[in-house]
Structure formats: structure tokens, C-alpha cells
């Protein structure tokens, strides 16, 4: 089985062709970053307009690179939530039109489920082995600009959220801290670059702990502490120690993510721990997980951590295998949870 995946939930227009072994035949991403940079964040109106302008060309390119035509694929998987309504609509309406015109089935995919499924993708450039069905039950840390949650995947398509953020997502926290420092957008990769040479022990930021047993996260207190700390510094100190301040802040976010994930792994004994979503591209986070000794920790390659359509296509394949398919009046769901897409929901 081969599916075309379409992803337009936020600010990247993406299309990909993936087969049922998880092999990526093509994965095309049209970035809108340059259109949003001057606003230091995603402007929903601009995002949906850009998706409209590029979605057809992105799909054409994905098919071209896979050396396929629409009739060579078995179905069309599309992200229908969660995300920005105007952005999701472009992908879903395009997928519906393609499905109607080609007679290929339409498969609705949850964006968060897509991020988890990125762990099962493989391509010709990969050196590390991806996860397989033998790695279930799986613990997944989904950590992106909009989400931070620990999800237990007992078997294919069964999702249980162990704990999510009560306020800001980890990526959002990094983005807002970078924005306050006037460093640009998106903040995560910029902080990584600046903090790479810094001393992460320069300043200790407070940790928020609700209870010693739960898996909920909270980052808004840390964000405020970061901003207040920067405000308290003399201009000179900030200039001389920017790398140290950034490294310390990044480390506070990373410690929180690593600590809770490894505790969950210790308590639940999954076969593997997958760290997925845009923030999983972070070097300090990857390093933080190296201390894990009791569970295999897997990070998808960077290109499948940030938003892409290959992960959507593979999630579509798993859903299609159990007969899930959407009617042509499929609607978008801007605030869909991953549990709502669980087979036992
Ligand atoms: O998964 P993603 O591409 O989009 C969402 O679904 O949100 O994640 C985007 C987030 C942004 O907050 C961005 O700053 C963060 O991922 N990010 C990073 C890195 N690359 C992207 N954060 C830290 N280090 C990175 N290298
Ligand atoms: Zn995402």
C-alpha cells in the first residue's frame, strides 16, 4: 500500500509518498518561515493564504519525486486536526477534491498521532534503525510548538495520555523566551545555536513540580522566571553572558522533559521511548536522554521531527489497515486530542 500524505496544520505546506513498510518515497516541505519571521510568530491568515498558493505544487512535486502519478497511490491521508482552522481547511479540502477526482480513499489523520508515527519511518539516507511493531508498547514524548505530552502507545493506534502541559508547550516557551530576547523566530533552533557554547550551570531556574508521581508539565512559570531574570541583568552582563543565560534556560526546559519521561519509562517499562515533534530536533535534549540506561530512546531524523507529511502518510497507512476512511464531508477539528483518535475511543 502506498499513500499520499498532506499536512497543512500550521505554517508548513507538506506532501509525501510513503509505503506500508514505512519507506519514504518522497517528502516535500514548502516552508513559510520567511513570511512569518517579521511578526515573530505564525500569523494564521498569512498561513492559510500561503497554503492555498503552494499546496498543489507541493503535492505535484511529492508525486514527481516518487516517480508516481495519483493513480499509482492507494489513498490520500490528510491532517484534519489539531491545528489552525484556516490552515487545516486548505489541506482537507484539497485532499477531498483529489480523492473525489481520483477515486482514491480519504484517510483522516491526527497531527499528534502523525508525530508519533514518525518513529516508524525509514528512507535511503537513514543510518539508525527506526522503530518497528516489535517496539510496542511504546512511550512517546510529543514535544512541539503547540504540544507537550507523554503518550503511552500500548499497541498500534491505541493512545493514552499520561500527562500533558497545563499551560505553555515546551517549544512555545523556547519561542517566547527567544522573542523576549529579540533573537527571532522560531526560537528553538536559534537558542540552540546561541546556547551551544554557553555554560548551562550559569543560572539555575526554578522547577515546577505538581506532584512526585504525575506526568503533567508546566512551562509558563519557567518562561516568566526566564524573562524576569533577563530583566534583572545589567545590559553588560547579558551581552557577555548571553550564551550562558540561553544554555541555562534551555537546560531547565530539557531537564523537565527528560526527568519526567525517564521516570515514566522506569514505572511503565515500555520497550522504547520515542521523542518526537519539533523540539526533538534539539541537541541538548538529545544529549539529556543519553543518560537513559533502562530503555531504548529513539529520535526520528531531524527532517521527520519537525512538521512533515511523511509521518501523516504512515499514520494514514496504519489507520487504513484497520479500515478507517473518511467520507467526503470530512471536517477539520482544530482542538483534537490524540486520545480521540485512539482505536478504543
Ligand atoms: O512540530 P513542529 O514543527 O510544529 C508544531 O507542531 O508545533 O514544532 C515547532 C517547534 C517550535 O517551537 C520550534 O522552536 C521548535 O519546534 N524547534 C526546536 C528546534 N527545532 C524546532 N526547538 C529546540 N531546538 C531545535 N533545534
Ligand atoms: Zn507538529
Report a brief summary of the structure:
The protein is an alpha/beta fold and 345 residues long.
Q: Give, in order, the helices and strands.
A: EEEHHEHEHEEEHHHHEHEHH
Q: What top-tier CATH class of the largest domain fits best?
A: Alpha Beta
Helical run tally? 11
Summing up helix and strand content along with how strands pair, one would put the structural category as: alpha/beta
Which small-molecule ligands are present, each listed once? 5'-O-[(R)-(carboxyoxy)(hydroxy)phosphoryl]adenosine, zinc ion
Q: DSSP strand (E) fraction?
A: 15-25%
Largest sheet: 5 strands, mixed
How many structural domains can be distinguished in the coordinates?
Answer: 2
Task: Give a description of the structure.
Helices cover 41% and strands 18% of the residues. The protein is of the alpha/beta class. The chain has a five-stranded mixed sheet with strand order 3-2-1-4-5, sandwiched between helices. Strands 8-7-6-9-10 form a five-stranded mixed sheet, with helices on both faces. The protein has two domains: 2-130 and 303-341, Nucleotidyltransferase, domain 5; 133-299, Nucleotidyltransferase, domain 5 (2-Layer Sandwich), CATH 3.30.420.40.
Secondary structure layout:
Layout: E1 2-7, E2 12-19, E3 24-31, H1 33-36, H2 44-65, E4 75-81, H3 85-102, E5 105-110, H4 111-117, E6 138-143, E7 148-153, E8 159-164, H5 170-180, H6 187-195, H7 220-232, H8 235-268, E9 272-276, H9 283-288, E10 296-298, H10 302-305, H11 310-321
Parallel strand pairs: 1-4, 4-5, 6-9, 9-10
Antiparallel strand pairs: 1-2, 2-3, 6-7, 7-8
Helix pairs in contact: 2-3, 4-11, 5-6, 5-7, 6-8
The site of 5'-O-[(R)-(carboxyoxy)(hydroxy)phosphoryl]adenosine (KG4) has 19 residues, from helix 5 and helix 6.
Amino acid at each position: 500500500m502506498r499513500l499520499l500524505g498532506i499536512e497543512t496544520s500550521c505554517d508548513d505546506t507538506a506532501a509525501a509518498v510513503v509505503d506500508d513498510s514505512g519507506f519514504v518515497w518522497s517528502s516535500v516541505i514548502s516552508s513559510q518561515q520567511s513570511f512569518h519571521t517579521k511578526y515573530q510568530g505564525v500569523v494564521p491568515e498569512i498561513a492559510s493564504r500561503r497554503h492555498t498558493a503552494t499546496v498543489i505544487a507541493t503535492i505535484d512535486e511529492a508525486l514527481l519525486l516518487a516517480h508516481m502519478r495519483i493513480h499509482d497511490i492507494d489513498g490520500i491521508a490528510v491532517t484534519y486536526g489539531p491545528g489552525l482552522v484556516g490552515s487545516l481547511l486548505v489541506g482537507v479540502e484539497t485532499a477531498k477534491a483529489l480523492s473525489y477526482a481520483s477515486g482514491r480513499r480519504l484517510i483522516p489523520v491526527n497531527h499528534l498521532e502523525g508525530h508519533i508515527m514518525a518513529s516508524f519511518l525509514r528512507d535511503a539516507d537513514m543510518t539508525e534503525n527506526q522503530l518497528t511493531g516489535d517496539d510496542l508498547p511504546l512511550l512517546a514524548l510529543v514535544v512541539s510548538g503547540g504540544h507537550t505530552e507523554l503518550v503511552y502507545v500500548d499497541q498500534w493506534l491505541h493512545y493514552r495520555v499520561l500527562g500533558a502541559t497545563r499551560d505553555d508547550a515546551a517549544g512555545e516557551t523556547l519561542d517566547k523566551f527567544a522573542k523576549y530576547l529579540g533573537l527571532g523566530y522560531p526560537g528553538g533552533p536559534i537558542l540552540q545555536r546561541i546556547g551551544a557554547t554557553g555554560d548551562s550551570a550559569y543560572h539555575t531556574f526554578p522547577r515546577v513540580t505538581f506532584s512526585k508521581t504525575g506526568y503533567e508539565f508546566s512551562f509558563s512559570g519557567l518562561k516568566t522566571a526566564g524573562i524576569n531574570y533577563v530583566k534583572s541583568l545589567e545590559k553588560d552582563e547579558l551581552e557577555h553572558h548571553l550564551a550562558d543565560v540561553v544554555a541555562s534556560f534551555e537546560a531547565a526546559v530539557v531537564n523537565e522533559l527528560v526527568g519526567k519521561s525517564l521516570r515514566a519509562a522506569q514505572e511503565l517499562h515500555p520497550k522504547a521511548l520515542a521523542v518526537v515533534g519539533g523540539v526533538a530536533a534539539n541537541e541538548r535534549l538529545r544529549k539529556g536522554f543519553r543518560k537513559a540506561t533502562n530503555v531504548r530512546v529513539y529520535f526520528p531524523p531531524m527532517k521527520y521531527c519537525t512538521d512533515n507529511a511523511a509521518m501523516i502518510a504512515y499514520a494514514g497507512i496504519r489507520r487504513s489497515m484497520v479500515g478507517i476512511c473518511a467520507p467526503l464531508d470530512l471536517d477539520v477539528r482544530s482542538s483534537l486530542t490524540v486520545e480521540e483518535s485512539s482505536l478504543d475511543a
